[in-house]
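Dear colleague,

Thank you for sharing your sequence with our group. We've completed the structure prediction you requested, and as agreed, I am returning the results in plain text so they can be pasted directly into your records. Please verify that the sequence below matches your submission; if there's any discrepancy, let me know and we will rerun it promptly.
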Amino acid sequence: MNYLFFTNTPAHVHLYKHAIRELRERGHEVRILAREYTCTVELLEWYDLPYEVYGSCGTSKGSLLSRLPAHYARAIRLARRFDPDLIFGMGGYAAHTGALLRTPTVLLIDSEPASFDHTISTPFARVVLTPNTFRKDLGDHHYVFAGVKECAYLHPDIYEPNSSVRDRLGLDADEPYAILRLNAFGSQHDVGKSGITGTDRRRIIERLAEDATVLVSDEGGTTNLEGLPARPFDLHPALLHDVLAEAELLVADTQTMVTEAAMLGTPAIRSNSFVGDDDMGNFVELENQGLIRNVSSADEIRAEIDTYLGPDTDETWRTRRDEFLAETVNLTDVIVDVATVDGHVDELESVRQFGNHTRQEPASSVGVGSD
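Please find the predicted structure tokens below.
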């Protein structure tokens, strides 16, 4: 079988990397179509995965929109040359390429607010897979798995931490450190959304620095750290999860890395304009499990830091993490199983049709907002 995977962001590389390796080991042909966006290609090179670049864009919304026609043209041309039997992706590129090639497509989605992307992509998919925390019905071909998409690479069955990261960072064995992760807000579903900006970044760094060394990971590269008690995260991006696993705390205005922290048992405070009554289901669930805290202002972040940098935090959060993960699947296994049945997921026990799963509803209204 020929399997084609779209990796439009670094998170997509992590999502599919283990499944791609497994399928190749089983003798299948696998190709990746990658968008050169932030460190996506760096990660593909690090993991030695077979890819071709269909296009590039910066972290601004205009950069993506202006290049869409060329992206589609090259992606379709490269896909036709490979002649896939099944396509995996997370949105329009994969779905529309599959439709034009008359190739079945599997979409793996975890963000309810991306309404426009859902509208233009899901009708063309053979199956749409989402976490069972997802609270938006995407049609009869919508199926759910137990967990979050980060279970494809941070589930304990598959993730092996790298204990050398403290040496690489030049940190002592017992030196506490915290990570501030800042989003570029350049995606289509980020239109009208914002995170931690300007003076608030400075105030948060100064508060974190009272108790820990502060590492800043800024996707947009706009934060000026001159005169601040912090330094940039400057290791290879493939080591970021290992650094996150050792951290005392993550403060972030992004989405994926907060969920990754929860999977690793690292306390996380999330703050952006998605937070509120219509927040995404996975973040409501993770907060209900005591793994993360969702707040809407920098003042709330600073107030929460005392709790998250308190004594015995490591043991408490890892216990909560273990309890949560006990009810989840290794998503890599699910992806491989979906591939081997050509997307006919009714044959699989690891997924259930949306509406037929038994997970309890979260305590709050969630994730049916639009872009």
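Summary note from our side: The chain has 13 helices and 14 strands.

Kind regards,
the structure core
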